[in-house]
Structures are given as C-alpha cells and as structure tokens.
Amino acid sequence: MLYDAPGPRARRRAWIGSGVALLVVAALVTVAVRRLADRGQLDEARWDFVSDPAVLRFLAAGLLNTLKAAAVAGVFAFALGFALAVGRLAPSRLVRAAATVWVQFWRAIPLLLFILFISLGLPVLGVKLPVFWFLVIGLAVYNSAVFAEIIRAGVLALPRGQAEAAASIGLTFWQGMRLVRLPQAVRFMVPSLVSQFVVLLKDSSLGFVLPYSELLHRGRITGSYEHSILQAYAVVAVVYIAVNASLSYLARYLERRTRATATRGRGRRGERPPGDSVTPITADTLGGYIPAGLGDIGSSR
Known about the structure:
Blueprint: H1 8-38, H2 53-89, H3 93-108, H4 111-124, H5 131-156, H6 160-168, H7 173-203, H8 215-226, H9 229-270, E1 278-280, E2 298-300
Antiparallel strand pairs: 1-2
C-alpha cells in the first residue's frame, strides 16, 4: 500500500467532491446543448447524412484505412521496440548506449512534427512512397520507443533470481533472455502493450495532415459536403470512442486473466503433489537448448 485506506471522513469528502463535479459537468453539458439547439445545430436536417448508406460506406472505408495503418505500424513498432528493449538490457555498454539514445530521442520528438518532416523531406531526397507508408513510418518509429520501455519494464519486473538461475546453469545473457526471462515477462506486458496500441490507433488520426484518407480526413470531407462539420466530427468521435473502448476492455480483460493465471501458478508452486519426482533437465525443458554436461541436473515440476 502506498497510502492508508480512507476512513469515513475521507470517503464522505470523496463522495461530496464527486457529486459536485458531476453536477458541474451536467450543468456545462446542459448549457452546451442549449446553445447548440439555439443555433440550429441539433436540427434533424443536419443529421440526415447519418442515414445515407453512401456516406456510411465512405466513412467505413476511412475507418478501415485507419485500422490498416495502425495495425501495420503496430507490428513494426513492436518488432523494433522489442529489439531496442533487449538492447537496453544488453551487457554491452555500446549496445545499451545506442538503444538508449534512440529511445530518448524519439520520445522527445513531437509525432506530428516527425510525420510532416518525413512526408516533406523524404521526397526531396528522392524517396517517393505512398502516403500510407509515410504515416506508418512515423507511427512505427515514434511508438517503438514507447514499446521498448514497456518491454524493458516487463523484464525488469521479474525477480532478479530468474537471471541468476539462468546464468547458474550456463546460459548466456541472450539465451537466458530468450528461454527464461522474456517468456515470463510477456504475461505482464500484454495489457500495457494493448493500451499503447490504443494510443497508436488514436495517433493515426494525424494522417489527415498528409493527407491520408483515414477516418478523420473522410469525416472532414463529409462535413464539408453535407454542410454539417460539427455533426460529422461528432460521428467520427463516436466511432473512435467505440473502437478505443473495445481495445481498452480487451486490455482490462487480459490484465484480469494475467493476474488470475499468476495467482493459480503461485498456488500450484506452493503445494507439491504427493509422489512428485525430480526429472532431469532436457533439451525440451529449455526450448531445445541445454548446456553440455548438465543433463544430470534435475528441475522440480
């Protein structure tokens, strides 16, 4: 515990503060709705495009482009972030320094500025790519630094004894990372990785500056054509909220499953079944690798 559990007074103050905040928010929403109604922004005619199948197909294609860019960028960002995380944990100072410089540099660069830079700078250098790849490169490079820190934190969260145990049976750093530490750390990383993918998906909306035909860009076109800018942006916002809420729910679900699995695992390790035997370490127990001369060492199941 980082702080004491709140007592009756603290809980009462928290409830009062929450109630006041809800009342303030409700008042602001009421004022906003009335102002919009007075200006005719809630008239039915301004929302007719929502029931137009052609408009819905147009926006759905934009959503598909958004998901496509986010998925491709997410794969590249995770692969690069994985390599950077291992590099930051490597025993070589040169490798650690290079990975650290990459991570710290890209975490300090605004993503929108980087996307504009590569979209305007690469063609000048003779690198001509579809607009899709300019967005993917920007998202992948920027988010690789964040994924690297998530993966590194997952590995460092493991008990120090895991690395020492791997070294004690003759595994090198890279073998211990691949066979012992990373497989265990993955379970703790998954919720955070999914949450970061939600951020990456939202960042894909920056593709409108290229312009890439993603959901926000198509929403702006729809609003201009239908003379309902505010309404089109409201529809786009609802779609983003629905997609991101689904991914956030997935992250929470994976987190619950991870905790439940870890709890069951600790329970099983705490009790040794009757007749449990000690079996020798084999190539299968270490994913196909076993140091020479260690075949007679046993590991408890």
